[in-house]
């Protein structure tokens, strides 16, 4: 299992969390390793545009695209989820994303930002990512930007995307399961036992 190192930070906490969930983990930017691994985690902290610059510097968007074309699992976390959308807008500056999903990531409309702390989510009943977790389970969020709409009806591998929502001032996309491409806006690696359970759910899907 590979965690993609593209200068986004937060790599070691993600590495430790995935190891605790039961996986052998390599943190690397090597494209061959990232393509061939059973699973690829794309973390991300900071600004959308900076993360995209880092991702492109290691051809990360191409690695993601090739993996998905072959049905190979990818998990995006926080800004690693946001960059999967077509574009991001921060402080009036628009940046192009990896474009795996339609839509724009922009600033939440809320009285208090960033959205920092524990929050519940509304997952579909048939979610595999949240299987075995109670509806009132809380996850740890740190963000001011999010995808506030979901515009994709038919997903990867011909499967209907499963979209999980949360609310902070307004509804936003908290997680997506879309064929081999899964992602969370919250931080599983900072979400204690709930996050570990969720990561195990993802790892259990890897062939």
TrEMBL record:
<comment type="pathway">
    <text>Amino-acid biosynthesis; L-histidine biosynthesis; L-histidine from 5-phospho-alpha-D-ribose 1-diphosphate: step 5/9.</text>
</comment>
<keyword id="KW-0028">Amino-acid biosynthesis</keyword>
<dbReference type="GO" id="GO:0000105">
    <property type="term" value="P:L-histidine biosynthetic process"/>
</dbReference>
<dbReference type="GO" id="GO:0000107">
    <property type="term" value="F:imidazoleglycerol-phosphate synthase activity"/>
</dbReference>
<comment type="subunit">
    <text>Heterodimer of HisH and HisF.</text>
</comment>
<keyword id="KW-0378">Hydrolase</keyword>
<keyword id="KW-0368">Histidine biosynthesis</keyword>
<comment type="function">
    <text>IGPS catalyzes the conversion of PRFAR and glutamine to IGP, AICAR and glutamate. The HisH subunit catalyzes the hydrolysis of glutamine to glutamate and ammonia as part of the synthesis of IGP and AICAR. The resulting ammonia molecule is channeled to the active site of HisF.</text>
</comment>
<keyword id="KW-0963">Cytoplasm</keyword>
<dbReference type="GO" id="GO:0016829">
    <property type="term" value="F:lyase activity"/>
</dbReference>
<dbReference type="InterPro" id="IPR029062">
    <property type="entry name" value="Class_I_gatase-like"/>
</dbReference>
<feature type="active site" description="Nucleophile">
    <location>
        <position position="78"/>
    </location>
</feature>
<keyword id="KW-0808">Transferase</keyword>
<feature type="active site">
    <location>
        <position position="187"/>
    </location>
</feature>
<feature type="domain" description="Glutamine amidotransferase">
    <location>
        <begin position="2"/>
        <end position="203"/>
    </location>
</feature>
<dbReference type="InterPro" id="IPR010139">
    <property type="entry name" value="Imidazole-glycPsynth_HisH"/>
</dbReference>
<protein>
    <recommendedName>
        <fullName>Imidazole glycerol phosphate synthase subunit HisH</fullName>
        <ecNumber>4.3.2.10</ecNumber>
        <ecNumber>3.5.1.2</ecNumber>
    </recommendedName>
</protein>
<dbReference type="Pfam" id="PF00117">
    <property type="entry name" value="GATase"/>
</dbReference>
<dbReference type="InterPro" id="IPR017926">
    <property type="entry name" value="GATASE"/>
</dbReference>
<keyword id="KW-0315">Glutamine amidotransferase</keyword>
<dbReference type="GO" id="GO:0004359">
    <property type="term" value="F:glutaminase activity"/>
</dbReference>
<feature type="active site">
    <location>
        <position position="189"/>
    </location>
</feature>
<dbReference type="GO" id="GO:0005737">
    <property type="term" value="C:cytoplasm"/>
</dbReference>
<keyword id="KW-0456">Lyase</keyword>
